[in-house]
Amino acid sequence: MKKSKFYNLAKNEVESLQNQRDAIAEWLFTHTLGKVVNSIISRPLFSILASHYLKSSWSLKKIESFKYEFGIDDTDFENVEYQSLNDYFIRKFKPHARSFSRNEWELSSPAEGYYLVSSNAHLPVKGVTTTPNELLDCLPGFEIRQSVVIRLSPKEYHRLHFPFSGVIKSIAPISGRLYSINPVTLKYDQNLFIKNKRIVLELVFDNGVRAYCILIGATYIGSIQLSVKAGDRFLKGDEFGYFEFGGSTAVLLIDTKLNFEEKILSYSEQGIETFAKLGQTIAIKYK
């Protein structure tokens, strides 16, 4: 079992991360049979079939083994009766388990996951050549000055929240496949961000910042569920959707140079992710 490093923002220390499924990812992208299997499971039909199982009561028996495999601690999550493995995957935090700063000049982490931050428009993932134009499937409506990639591992909370208050200018779905996206798979295919199904939200925040939030689907259900629509106003910390079963990724493209925590930037330059809890302040916009 491979181990990689990540910086834990809450603990202010570097920790080892166990990647249980690295071997499977390697096989899918490097072996002849694995490539055939990868081609099959990335197709929408496979996800439709997987969806029926993962949302059915037949998958209930998989919850305990899923929790054991990923070492999930349920302390901060609601104590409810789940109806399926997918139902557990999209579980909610207990009230007040996570909090957002009321300061609209502080960027709160919109998801609980692993962050890589770039000081320019290029995605901060080594080897990835994807441009904002390709990711958005169009020309950006404003200059991109920073980008953030957020990886949600299978064990993490999979709901998404707004980092500032503001309004949704537009929502655009982009069709695509459903390949697995993680540090291992990106080594073998740097274009997975633009091959996969995604949804683009254009956001205008009350503090003057503009951003695109791109939600990228992945293997299995690969479904991105939104609870908002274009034109909606929102408050900082409001939930706006969630990823159903499968590893997930979100990308923020920002028009403003925000002042990210120095260690986040330093580790990002080394290709080391920062783990941030939902709602943690990760950057500041100076007035």
Largest sheet: 10 strands, mixed
Number of strands: 16
Q: Number of DSSP helices?
A: 9
Structural class: alpha+beta
- For the termini, the CA-CA separation is 46 Å
Order of helices and strands: EEHHHHHEEHEEEHHEEEEEEEHEE
* Share of β-strand residues: 25-35%
C-alpha geometry: globular
Radius of gyration based on Cα positions: 18 Å
Q: What is the helical fraction, as a range of percent?
A: 10-25%
State the domain count: 1
Mean pLDDT reading: 83
Stretches where pLDDT is under 50 for at least 5 consecutive residues are 33-38
Could you describe the 3D structure shown?
The protein is of the alpha+beta class and about 290 residues long. The chain has one domain. Helix content is about 25%, strand content about 30%. It is built from 9 helices and 16 strands. Helix 1 (about 20-30) packs across helix 2. It is globular, with a radius of gyration of 18 Å. About 40% of the residues are buried.
Can you give keywords for this protein?
287 residues, alpha+beta, ten-stranded mixed sheet, three-stranded antiparallel sheet, 9 helices, globular
